[in-house]
Amino acid sequence: MAAKMLDGRKLAGEIFEEIRTRVSARVAEGKPAPALATVLVGDDRASDVYVRSKQKNAKQVGIDARDHRLPASITTDELVELVSSLNADASVSGVLIQQPVPPQIDMTRVIAALDPVKDVDGFHPVNVGLVALGLAGAVEPCTPAGIVELLEHAGVSISGAEAVVVGRSNLVGKPAALLLLKRHATVTICHTRTRELAAHTRRADILVAAAGKVGLITREMVKPGAAVVDVAANWVGGKQVGDLGPGVEEVAGWLTPNPGGVGPMTRAMLIRNTFNAEVRRRP
User: Fold this and answer.
1) Which pLDDT tens digit goes with each residue over 126-146?
2) What residues are labeled active site?
3) How far is CA 82 from CA 19, 26, 89, 119, in A?
4) Global pTM?
5) Domain pair 30-120 / 142-263, same fold
6) What value, to the nearest 5°, has the Cα angle with vertex 130 and ends 129 and 131?
């Protein structure tokens, strides 16, 4: 029996429409439209595509997209100077610094320099800490927030569920585990060095694959009926593939396509975070 699709494209479209309506209502009240400043360092083609997609999504909901392109030779101090100017610009609602950046850039310093309210990626230590503590007011990181939104929208029961997150990155694995824990799942974090990985994944009612290793999760490792979210973006022969091996769709109860599952939701959460940042600054 084929798994039900967790369709990120469809849900993202609904979220974009919701935000478009809310932006229009604010503008009709005489309030300024939100503005998203994107910062791209260097000329990485993949990053350029990602930034353009995010700008397109912003514009389609009525958010002003402001593009900042910097040479690959820029220093950390110069990038921090730009971030500081965007912090001080009252017309800017949120700031996105596209990663990866050139190796000479100290992203720890750059992120720390960003105003936490304008940190629409949810990477600032203040926001990371609020998420870790389960406190209100955090800007939740986009990909983990998108995962939870997909599950909840599909009616997947998170409270009390066994959730296994395979991947421990600061961008996806760790915060995804925290957001699931906040919703009362019993969470296990695994990774590529976990011994007897299958013994953990076979228990999972919710399985998040975010290790970045092609074919890591085989059909034998999936509990029948589980909700499986494939986050990884691996490239094989010029095509994007995730961490799942063949046949998982025959075992899982719910499954994200890849691409078309988590990716669109990441952008949708970014747009929602940008709108919410503007609302927090200027109710």
Assistant:
1) 999 999 999 999 999 999 999
2) 54, 98, 121
3) 28, 28, 11, 14
4) 0.95
5) yes
6) 90
